[in-house]
Design brief:
Largest sheet: 5 strands, parallel
Order of helices and strands: HHEHEHHEHEEEHEHHHHHHHHH
Number of helices: 16
Helix content: 40-55%
Strand content: 5-15%
Distance between the termini: 56 Å
Strand order of the largest sheet: 2-3-6-1-7
Number of strands: 7
Length: 392
């Protein structure tokens, strides 16, 4: 797919971004209560042709979200639950017996991952070494390779899900291929009635969904990415990557390059061909551990505060503000830092790093809504800063 060449063609494709939001993403938000954040990230990854990892327990609509997205765009879905014993044939298809008789090793991919435009891999982190290398190539380059057989895949988005984060270093490369990460939990008790009602309506109208955005429309948006100008935020982005690395968020050079596609996708969905500061909101979702979520939110929100009124006028709704921090997660991160201070004799460079982390946590503590929790957390942070010789 070639990028649009004329201004009229670009304007038309930009309108497709708004159409994707209006006719696909917003209706999905009405059908899936409490999943707005995940749906917005699905839209971003779809336009960027990148991958999304969803962390959460079973029964929180992870697979249903992907199925509904595909249905609204008339895409072909491959949905599979991985186990430690899953074999490549279960994912990519078996060898074609008819061709095998002629001495050709050709995979029969009918109904399998290589023919899907939308892929959902549940319990992703159960992937074993037998399928890991092939899966990495699919995730990173949209290529399936088996022996001398090489195929370019039509896959637009791969969504992986698990109820835990990787604990084996061997899975680090797999997890790294999912640029954005998001949690999916059961809704709050007060939202349960709305979930039941929306879920019933969705089930009853399963076959009534009309696709107003096509696969070809999405591919046009994919092609337009190369026309997006990132120069306006280049220096801000470079500084931000350095800052995030300094506070312990690992961003490789390869990952930093790929994340620019995500920034460009945010701009396209906002009807722009120029990335501005507000598009950096997506970087809240590049965490490796749950503890990093609040640190990322603090850093990114600090950067977003400097956006101009002109930038805010055409910004993505997700850039307007972040949810209040989770007090339990803040407490766990503070406890982790306290343990490190007690057990290790920190060199000066590590002390500076820990002080920066505590400073960010102190800022997040101020956004905790419960006064008693806020005061308790703030006191703990100040005590740790005192032990490091910093006046709070």
């Amino acid at each position: 797919m070639n990028a649009p060449s004329s201004s009229e063609e670009m304007a038309e494709v930009l309108r497709l971004g708004q159409k994707l939001t209006d006719t696909v993403l917003e209706p999905m938000k009405r059908s899936f209560v409490g999943k707005d954040e995940i749906i917005d990230l699905l839209g971003i990854c779809l336009v960027a042709r990148e991958n999304l990892f969803i962390l959460g327990p079973p029964g929180t609509a992870k697979s249903a979200l992907v199925q509904q997205l595909a249905r609204r765009i008339e895409g072909q879905v491959f949905d599979y639950l991985l186990t430690r014993f899953s074999e490549p044939n279960e994912i990519f298809g078996p060898f074609d017996i008819r061709r095998l008789r002629d001495g050709e090793l050709i995979t029969n991919t009918e109904g399998m991952l290589p023919e899907a435009t939308f892929v959902f891999l549940d319990e992703l982190l159960n992937a074993n070494s037998a399928i890991l290398n092939s899966l990495l190539l699919v995730l990173n380059e949209r290529i399936f390779r088996r022996g001398r057989e090489t195929r370019h895949l039509p896959t637009l988005i791969v969504v992986g899900a698990s109820n835990h984060l990787p604990q084996d270093d061997a899975l680090g490369a797999l997890f790294d291929r999912f640029l954005l990460r998001v949690r999916s939990d059961n809704v709050h008790q007060e939202q349960l009635s709305s979930v039941l009602s929306a879920g019933w309506q969705l089930d009853m109208r399963r076959e009534e969904v009309a696709a107003e955005v096509t696969i070809e429309d999405v591919r046009q948006l994919n092609a337009l990415l190369r026309s997006v100008d990132l120069s306006q935020v280049e220096s801000v982005y470079v500084e931000l990557v350095h800052r995030l690395r300094h506070v312990g968020v690992a961003i490789s050079d390869r990952r930093a390059v790929k994340l620019q596609r995500i920034l460009a996708a945010s701009a396209l969905l906002c009807g722009r061909l120029i990335v501005n500061r507000t598009d950096l909101w997506v970087l809240r979702h590049i965490w490796d551990t749950e503890e990093q979520q609040d640190v990322l939110a603090a850093v990114i929100d600090d950067v977003l505060q400097d956006a101009t009124d002109e930038e805010k006028a055409t910004s993505h709704p997700r850039s307007h503000g972040n949810n209040a921090p989770d007090p339990e997660r803040l407490a766990a991160e503070i406890e982790r830092i306290e343990t490190r201070i007690e057990q290790e004799k920190l060199p000066p460079t590590d002390q500076a790093y820990v002080r920066d982390q505590l400073g960010l946590l102190a800022a997040r503590c101020q956004w905790v809504s419960d006064t008693q929790q806020r005061d308790f957390l703030a006191t703990k942070v100040n005590q740790l800063l005192d032990r490091l010789g910093v006046t709070a």
